[in-house]
From TrEMBL:
Matching InterPro entries: Sortase, Sortase_Class_E, Sortase_dom-sf, Sortase_E
Protein's recorded name: Class E sortase
Source taxonomy: Bacteria, Bacillati, Actinomycetota, Actinomycetes, Kitasatosporales
Active site: 123 (proton donor/acceptor), 192 (acyl-thioester intermediate)
Gene3D superfamilies tied to this protein: Sortase
Transmembrane segments annotated in the record for this chain: 12-36
Swiss-Prot/TrEMBL keywords: Hydrolase, Membrane, Transmembrane, Transmembrane helix
GO function term, MF aspect, one: hydrolase activity
Organism of derivation: Streptomyces termitum
């Protein structure tokens, strides 16, 4: 009987050690997913952003090459870091610590367009987590988009804390789900929710308040000072 008990105790001990090992492996994976991918993505985004600014400095007036990035998103509620915006919302784009504008399933308008909805996506956790603090945006908060020649200042007017990932209506050029019924110049931020999941989407809508030309010193608008 004692041998059987010892054998059972040994098996329990081995099983416990396996659980501890599995827990450590899982913990390391979480660290990799939520910290190390941020480090790598931020490093890549900083390098790409620096290239875009160098291109802007070297280009003649009016010329613009958007292959490296369309411009930079500034959201004071997010903490002050600029976010490079590139074309597309696939993981090949967003995993590099940037935001991307939609080309599918609904094509995004661009800020310089006379009307339409500038629709953006970014990760909320891992890979730079550029929209991690999207829940901090409130009505009236500024969202500023910087291009080579223009500052576009939007003001938040509506948030949708949770909707299905298949809800493409939030991306429409007239975002009726936000309450708008007529064409305008809108911006839409989208990301996953709840945190650490991708089950649903969190949506923030803004409307263009004004556009300011960039001066020689690239003086930011009042909302960013």
């Amino acid at each position: 009987m004692s041998r059987a008990r010892n054998r059972i105790a040994g098996l329990i001990s081995v099983f416990g050690e396996l659980l501890i090992t599995a827990g450590l492996v899982l913990g390391l994976f979480v660290v990799y997913s939520l910290w190390w991918t941020n480090v790598l993505a931020d490093r890549a985004a900083d390098q790409e952003g620096a290239k875009v600014r160098d291109q802007w400095a070297d280009q003649s007036p009016g010329a613009l090459d958007t292959k490296g990035g369309l411009g930079f998103l500034h959201v004071p509620a997010f903490g002050g870091d600029e976010i490079l915006v590139k074309k597309g919302t696939g993981t090949d784009v967003l995993n590099n610590g940037v935001a991307g504008y939609y080309t599918d399933p609904v094509k995004s308008a661009l800020p310089q367009d006379k009307q339409g909805n500038f629709t953006l996506a970014a990760h909320r956790d891992g890979h730079g987590a550029k929209f991690h603090n999207i829940h901090k945006l409130k009505n009236g908060d500024p969202i500023v988009f910087e291009t080579k020649d223009t500052w576009y200042v939007y003001k938040v007017y509506k948030t949708l804390p949770e909707t299905t990932k298949y809800n493409v209506n939030v991306l429409q050029q007239i975002p009726e789900e936000s309450g708008k019924k007529t064409p305008g110049r809108y911006i839409t931020l989208t990301t996953c929710t709840p945190m650490y999941t991708s089950d649903y989407r969190y949506i923030v809508w803004g409307e263009l308040a004004r556009a300011e030309k960039v001066d020689a010193q690239r003086t930011p608008p009042a909302e960013l000072r």
